[in-house]
Structures are given as structure tokens and as C-alpha cells.
Specification:
Radius of gyration: 19 Å
Strand content: under 5%
Largest sheet: none
Order of helices and strands: HHHHHHHHHHHHHHHHH
Structural class: mainly alpha
Shape: globular
Number of helices: 17
Helix content: over 70%
Length: 321
């Protein structure tokens, strides 16, 4: 492994603020980000990354290669929950397995945004269409999770109409904002878009650092209760993302030769949703333990990816160029 790359990632100010949040909880500090401020920052990050992605997409010729990239992302979102469900079911039961599988088949927008910041720091290229890939990967995994719940559960969840769940997935605030911002960025006049560049670009990394501070505080609070579930969820939350990320880091060269694209695909495969999926699973799987699948995604998989996962995936990508 390239330890210089790892050190560069570990000394990223945004990541260090995440550690500060975790440490603050361990020290029982009263440090916190006001709830409304945290929500605003998360909305800002989604808005900014979506808008910039739309601008990039507007300058990208839409050929068959881009179509295959989009299809690859959707297939990825369908495949991960299918195989992880059967690993999880004997250990955690059908309800929890469906919720966790949906979370790991879906994506973490914050991990994606952090990876974009890392890519920009290294001066790598990536296509704006990757924002569209991220947006398209949210709903399919949720739908697969509910289908698995209907097939292998006790049947009570069949009362939730699939059409209602699809609508809920697509109209989830984070999904709607990223898709809407993408389209607005795509349609916006380039000269007019430059007028809001200070907001969408210049202050982005500062807001990301504050948001990761908040994520560190939230993760630190959830970690202790999560550990009561034993070793299996902890190992799953590290090993499965690592396998997914490394596998896609290698396989993705079949759909894109661009290192930045491949790294983002790896992160999308390795990340887990802790915003959109919990919102949907409250409706579809009310018996699933939120104290299990949210900490797995937020307190374990998220920090693993931003500390070790991203440098590891990039190392494999560079090795296979």
C-alpha cells in the first residue's frame, strides 16, 4: 500500500474534524452542531455536488459509453443487496437482513462527497455523470430490500404498496435534491452558473469539514450501543464494503478507463446509506432494529471508507492502469 497516500488522507482537515467529533463524545464534551445547522449543511453538500455534476454532465457527450456507466451503477445497486441478504439472514433475521442489505446496496452521499474532495486534492479527473450514477443507485437497492422482505418474511410487509415505496424512495429529500440539482446544473447557462460558483465551489470544503465534525459526534454516540450486538455486524460492516470496493475497483475498468470514475464507483459499491434507506425502512420494515443497521453504516463503514477504504481502492486502481 502507498503509505504516503494514506498519510495524505489521514491529514485531510475534513477527516481530522471527524476524529475530533468522535473524541469529543469520548470526553463527554457538550460540543454539538445545532440540528438545523447540520441539516442545512447536508442539504448544501447535496446541492453543491449535484449542481457541479450537472454542469460537468452538460459538457459531456452522451454516447453509449455513458449509458453503460449508468447501467453498471444500477446493476451494482441491484446485486449487492441480493447477495448480502443471504449472508445476513441466518445471523440477524429476515427483517434486519433486508434493511441492512438495502443500506449496503444503496449509497452514502457524504462518503461520495468526501471522495470527490479527495480526488480533487490529488488532481484526478472524473466525469460529472458519476453524480447521476449516485442518484440512480438509491432507489433500486431499497426496492430489492423490500422484495426480499416480501419473499422471505412473514408476509406482513406486503401491505406496503411497491408503488408507494418507489415514490417514497424517489421523493426522499436527499434523493430529490441531488437529482434536482443535477438537472438544474445541466440546464443552467454557464455564465449564470459562474455567478454562484463562490457558493457551490469555494466554501465547499469548509462546509464538508463542519459536516464531518457532526458525523463524528453522531458516530461516537452510536458506537457503544452498536457493539452490544456482537462481532458479526462489526465484521460485516468492514469486510463486505472492503470486498465490494476492491472488486469494483478492478471490474470498473471495463466501463471506464478514468481513475476518478473508478474510485467513485468503488466508493459507491463500498458505502452504505444511513439517510435514505432508514427513512424508507421505517415504512417497509418497522421491526428492523435501527440500532443495528444505522450504526453499521454510519459508525463503522463510513469511517472505514474515508480512512482506509479510499486509499486502498485507489491503490488497486493505480496498479491495474
Amino acid at each position: 500500500m502507498n503509505f504516503d497516500l494514506l498519510i495524505d488522507n489521514l491529514t485531510n482537515p475534513a477527516l481530522l474534524f471527524f476524529f475530533l467529533g468522535v473524541i469529543a463524545v469520548q470526553l463527554k464534551s457538550d460540543l454539538e452542531i445545532p440540528k438545523n445547522s447540520s441539516k442545512f449543511i447536508s442539504l448544501y453538500l447535496l446541492f453543491s455536488i449535484g449542481f457541479k455534476g450537472g454542469q460537468e454532465l452538460a459538457h459531456t457527450p452522451m454516447g453509449s459509453d455513458i449509458l453503460w456507466i449508468l447501467i453498471f451503477g444500477i446493476l451494482l445497486a441491484l446485486t449487492v443487496p441480493l447477495y448480502t441478504f443471504f449472508i445476513l439472514r441466518p445471523r440477524v433475521g429476515v427483517d434486519n437482513a433486508a434493511a441492512i442489505a438495502a443500506a449496503y446496496g444503496s449509497v452514502s452521499a457524504v462518503t461520495f462527497v468526501t471522495c470527490v474532495s479527495f480526488i480533487e486534492m490529488l488532481g484526478l479527473d472524473f466525469g460529472g455523470y458519476m453524480i447521476a450514477v449516485m442518484a440512480l443507485m438509491e432507489a433500486p437497492a431499497i426496492i430489492v430490500g423490500v422484495l426480499l422482505l416480501s419473499l422471505f418474511g412473514n408476509g406482513a410487509k406486503k401491505e406496503v404498496p411497491m408503488g408507494a415505496l418507489v415514490k417514497h424512495s424517489l421523493t426522499n429529500g436527499s434523493v430529490l435534491l441531488i437529482i434536482g440539482s443535477l438537472f438544474i446544473g445541466f440546464l443552467a447557462n454557464e455564465k449564470q452558473a459562474q455567478g454562484i460558483a463562490p457558493f457551490t465551489t469555494d466554501i465547499f470544503k469548509g462546509f464538508l469539514a463542519v459536516f464531518l465534525l457532526d458525523m463524528g459526534i453522531t458516530s461516537g454516540k452510536k458506537l457503544s450501543s452498536f457493539l452490544k450486538h456482537g462481532w458479526f455486524p462489526l465484521l460485516f460492516a468492514i469486510i463486505i464494503p472492503l470486498i465490494n470496493g476492491l472488486a469494483i475497483a478492478y471490474i470498473s475498468k471495463a466501463v471506464s478507463p478514468i481513475p476518478g470514475d473508478r474510485l467513485l464507483f468503488s466508493v459507491l459499491a463500498a458505502s452504505a446509506s444511513y439517510i435514505a434507506v432508514p427513512a424508507a425502512m421505517k415504512l417497509a420494515a418497522p421491526k428492523a432494529d435501527v440500532g443495528l443497521y444505522i450504526p453499521m453504516a454510519l459508525a463503522v463503514t463510513f469511517p472505514f471508507n474515508i480512512i482506509l477504504g479510499i486509499p486502498l481502492y485507489l491503490q488497486l486502481i493505480n496498479y491495474t492502469l
